[in-house]
Amino acid sequence: MFRQLKEDIALIKERDPAARSSFEIFMTYPSLKALRSYRKANWLYRHGFFTLARIISQHARNRTGIEIHPGATIGKGLFIDHGMGVVIGETAVIGDNCLIYQGATLGGTGKDKGKRHPTLGDNVLVGAGAKVLGPFKVGSNVKIAANAVVLNAIPDNCTAVGVPARVVKRNGERVGCHTVTQDIDQIHIPDPVSQELCRMEIEIERMRKRLEELENKT
């Protein structure tokens, strides 16, 4: 238990530049409290103590603003930054070393049964306010921009943005007219609307030049 706590605190120190000390993290970080409560609730849930597990998870929700269903499956190294408003559903699966910002939801669409929530691969970033809704797979090394709404599967090594979310970068290559910054930047990500406008502008310019050529010939 203490080894796990030390690992959790070390992870927060590594990933959050605002973290000043282990004591501060232990006393104030909602991500740490929520994940510790989740592990207790998840053990109870897996051993059939469903109501007690839900009581613990709801108590953690009231204390931290982070709602993690005890039936969810969470890998190593998850960091929930700030955390207020984060919801992780019962059948959600989260891989290793993922980062989730405040207001994000790993939820269902309301029409599925059984597996209702998404599966995240390893090293996935879910931006602030993003919604990932449905029983599909989000691949490893994927970035989901702030306020994106993901309704379909995303392959590995992609960046997705927009409502509904669209892939704007794949396997290190940009898709569209803009570049994308690296690492955990959830802001400087291309907008699919501006991409479409850019494409239309290029097409209009091509047609204008073609019309000028025709006019010169006549």
Shape: elongated
The strand order across the widest sheet is 3-6-9-12-14-15-16
Query: What fraction strand?
Result: 15-25%
Chain-averaged pLDDT: 87
Gyration radius (Cα, Å) is 21 Å
- Class of secondary structure makeup: alpha/beta
Task: Catalogue the unreliable spans.
Answer: 177-184
Helix and strand element order = HHHHEEEEEEEEEEEEEEEEH
Helical residue percent? 25-40%
- Extended strand count: 16
Work out the helix count. Answer: 5
CA(first)-CA(last) distance: 83 Å
Describe the largest sheet: 7 strands, mixed
Describe it for me?
The chain is α/β, with parallel strands linked by helices and 218 residues long. The chain has five helices and 16 strands. The longest helix is centred in the C-terminal third of the chain and has 26 residues, at 192-217.
